[in-house]
Amino acid sequence: MSVQPAVLQDSFARELPELAVRWQAQAVSDPQLIVCNESLAANLGLDVDWLRSPDGLQFLVGARLPDDATPVAQAYAGHQFGGFVPRLGDGRALLLGEVVDAKGRRRDIHLKGSGQTPFARGGDGLAAVGPMLREYIVSEAMHALGIPTTRSLAVVATGRPVQRETLLPGAVLARVASSHLRVGTFQYAAMTGDVELVRRLADHAIARHHPAAAEADNPYLALFDAVIAAQAALVARWMLVGFVHGVMNTDNMTISGETIDYGPCAFMEAYEPATVFSSIDSWGRYAYGNQPPVAEWNLARFAETLLPLFADDQEAAVALAMESLSVFRRRYDTAWSAGMRAKLGLGPSDAGPLIDELLALLQANRVDYTSFFRHLGEHARGNPEPARGLFADLAGFDSWAARWRALGPDAALMDRSNPVYIPRNHLVEEALVAATGGDLAPLEQLMTAVVAPFDERPGLERYAEPAPDDFGDYRTFCGT
Fold first, then answer.
1. 251 has catalytic annotation
2. Which of 251, 261, 368, 415 is catalytic?
3. Digit-coded pLDDT (tens) for 387-404
4. Are residues 159 and 191 in the same domain?
5. Residue 383 covered by a domain
6. 216-251, pLDDT tens digit by residue?
7. CB count, 10 Å around CB of 153?
8. Of 337, 370, 387, which closes a domain?
9. Closest CA to 234 of 302, 151, 299, 149
10. What is the chain's Cα-based Rg?
């Protein structure tokens, strides 16, 4: 195991210089480690003791890198809430480079809150402790739930105040991803009008994420198909745990199929498809129930960038794109239905009407989504009261439950499919407020729960409970 990265590879900056601006992080005079992901560090070949040292902390804020490192701010465009912005990019972020992990996978090390770049668009390029810890908590919880995601390596306090509505302590997040290629990256490349740039970007994406596409008769159509499959599976997993991303702009849809950007995200409590947490999504474009069609819309924008690579004839290229995109809904429905059957402890039976009726009952009775499915496992073992007690319409639930029990649900499968602990919004806020004030105990206790979400443990009961009634109408912010 190396003490520090012997080398930070730079395949993105080297192969696609048109999409990268060489840049340096702002200096941090006295960085202080808030939290470090020791298991992830070990997987990346980074020594935890070194990361905690003064040299390691300077590495985590981008100030002390291997001599041959090429830190860059990445360029991308994107549709933000449906409106196209031709130049976004890493306004407060920096790609330090790539390492190869213990499984031989190339992984980006990337900073957020490391200072202004040429893409800052008037922003200060900084980040506050709270939003960076939110990403740490939620991304690690998503990983523990088995959902593809960027991961958090560390959050480091900068000692530099950040002006938002009030002055807040500043921080830098070091995160890890299979890459930071996005639909927006392709949109930026396509906007240049340089088809060869788009082709090189697509070749880079194929080599990095979907190498089987290179063997297809039409590699670029195969790339599109692979991204459709990855995103259909990803969004189905979000829906199965009640996760609301909150800002599904095209610059936040990865080519790898990993969840990225944990700004205005949260987990739904009472089942309601119209659930919105983002303070800026006043019309509900990115509501919980809208996430599958929004993903499909984003993929259509991805297809537009690849049309010249699909076929020389525009009409033929559009036909190929439409045929591929038509598969998204079927792939999503297949993944989501299989996941819902597992949550109910059922095999490959036709449980569609039973699922639809259950969701209607959950919505009408304002039932906590996560608690219900976990309690339903107790029902499968012969104790109906914890689940039954969540409903005002007892007759409706009893009728549904009798038909469900007749199918012989597997309680052990349900326990493997339904988490006890998620990063409940009131507990996340509690941890962030305390950590901003210097008290890390609530953060540490919450992380203990969410990194082993399926294992019920004594002493963690409050982490399995819905928010108290006085928690109110919860809203999250993008963190900029």
1. yes
2. 251
3. 999 999 999 999 999 999
4. no
5. no
6. 999 999 999 999 999 999 999 999 999 999 999 999
7. 25
8. 337
9. 149
10. 23
